[in-house]
Design a protein that fits this description.
There is one protein chain. The protein is 42% helix and 19% strand. With 407 residues, the protein is α/β, with parallel strands linked by helices. Strands 1, 2, 3, 4, 5, 6, 7, 8 and 9 form a 9-stranded mixed β-sheet that branches. A 6-stranded mixed β-sheet has the order 14-13-10-11-12-15, sandwiched between helices. The C terminus is likely disordered. Bound molecules: adenosine-5'-triphosphate and magnesium ion. Adenosine-5'-triphosphate binds next to α5, β11 and α12. It comes from Staphylococcus hsinchuensis.
């Protein structure tokens, strides 16, 4: 079937009254970016829905795959815009129906916003349904649980007819909800946390603490790959790699072994807080989950959180591990996350970390050294990488051309 439009529905956006214009503009630009560099289409975003006009050479299936990733899009339908004429409607409905399997069921669903159209809703259903039944002999009607719904929308400008509704990612358009800094480890949780906030329209930048030579380049590559997967939804994400080795060594010099985990998290948070201010973000996001490991009891969270007044968002706080794993598989980060490269915390993890840190003791141990300068130096030496969905291939080709120069 050659379709001439994609109908894109906004879902939740309709609730946003006065802000709607801003949301629609953002969604339009996110949609255009997701479709680049495909050719052969024109995007028309109205207040309540978007029409993407398709030219003959448009790769519609690829466009649908990309649109499914865009937050703020609720569903997508390939549609035909046809004349407001009963014979044309019938002919098109019959063409859809001919493709259905033997003994499938269908129903005709009519939405009629042009009340002046010569057939009312009921008449249209009966006329078109009757035409389909008499022109095919392998189908029957089921109004409650049909295998196929042929939808006919009678609007003022034309009639739109379709029988496919593709589920979108839902949520809100990224760029409408401010900016956060995601603490991205190589684990299962933090990429899922990032996706959760992006789904609510929030832009993310990511920060990763790297401790060479205790952690390998492979561990860093893993985080790059996770960022690349997240970027598929938004175009580009900035990843800040923080050199964390000196701070970790210093923590181990002055803090009691059982408290090193708590102080490590506190130093990460202090670095993240400075970066938040530097990049103009409004919150920190992490993958913490209540009660999962030693650093994630309420007492630990209290001690770690105390270094900052920036809001710390924990979208996975109350989920079960199985739910997080399920989400990680859905968004495609799970297989990368379970690759066995240590991150900086696994390496320095004490045998018996304190699960209920005494806050006064934390402060007392950290008084053994003035960490401020070292924290500032870590921030000053951050490596920034701009990552989009093609990042790996870009890097490979750079490496290739470098290799050519060398040999
Ligand atoms: P994850 O699967 O995200 O690593 P986790 O359950 O393993 O989470 P922890 O390792 O205790 O939990 O880390 C808690 C949170 O702290 C992580 O979700 C992440 O947001 C942050 N974090 C931990 N290590 C790093 C790191 N090296 N760089 C950046 N953030 C980190
Ligand atoms: Mg971890």
């Amino acid at each position: 079937m050659i379709y001439d439009h994609l109908l894109v529905r906004y879902g939740e956006l309709t609730l946003k009254g006065a802000n709607r214009k801003m949301f629609v503009n953002q969604l339009r630009s996110n949609t255009k970016r997701a479709l680049m560099p495909l050719q052969g289409y024109k995007v028309k975003a109205n207040r309540d829905r978007m029409y993407i006009e398709l030219e003959q050479d448009a790769d519609m299936e690829e466009m649908c795959n990309r649109l499914k990733q865009v937050f703020g899009i609720y569903s997508i339908s390939p549609v035909l815009k046809i004349e407001k004429d009963i014979a044309t409607i019938k002919a098109q409905a019959i063409e859809f129906a001919r493709q259905y399997k033997e003994n499938d069921t269908f129903k005709i669903d009519v939405k009629r916003s042009d009340k002046n159209f010569e057939y009312d809703t009921f008449q249209l259903q009966r006329e078109v349904g009757g035409a389909v039944l008499s022109e095919t002999d392998h189908l029957s009607v089921d109004v409650h649980h049909p295998d196929h719904v042929i939808k006919i929308e009678v609007r003022h400008d034309a009639i739109y007819i379709y029988d496919r509704v593709i589920e979108g990612a839902g949520g809100l358009p990224v760029g409408t909800g401010g900016k956060t800094l995601l603490m991205l480890s190589g684990g299962i949780d933090s990429p899922v946390a990032g996706m959760e906030v992006m789904r609510r329209g929030v832009t993310i930048e990511a920060i990763h603490f790297h401790s060479p030579p205790f952690t390998s380049e492979k561990a860093k590559d893993k985080v790059i790959e996770l960022t690349r997967i997240l970027s598929e939804h938004v175009g580009e994400i900035k990843l800040y790699i923080v050199p964390f080795t000196e701070l970790q060594k210093q923590i181990h010099k002055v803090v009691h072994e059982r408290y090193t985990m708590t102080s490590t998290r506190r130093m990460m948070m202090r670095v993240a807080d400075k970066v938040v201010h530097q990049v103009g973000a409004n919150a920190i996001v992490n993958g913490e989950n209540l009660g999962q490991v030693a650093s994630q009891t309420l007492k630990s969270m209290y001690a770690i959180n105390a270094v900052t007044s920036t809001p710390v968002l924990r979208p996975l706080l109350t989920l079960d591990k199985e739910e997080i794993v399920h989400k990680a598989k859905q968004i495609g980060t799970f297989d990368v996350s379970i690759q066995p490269f240590e991150d900086c915390c696994t390496i320095f993890t004490p045998k018996n970390p304190v699960t209920e840190p005494d806050y006064d003791k934390v402060l007392k141990y950290e008084e053994g050294f003035d960490f401020e300068e070292m924290i500032q130096s870590a921030v000053d030496n951050v490596e920034t990488i701009n990552i989009d969905k093609n990042y790996e291939s870009k890097k490979d080709s750079e490496t290739n051309s470098l290799a050519k120069d060398l040999f």
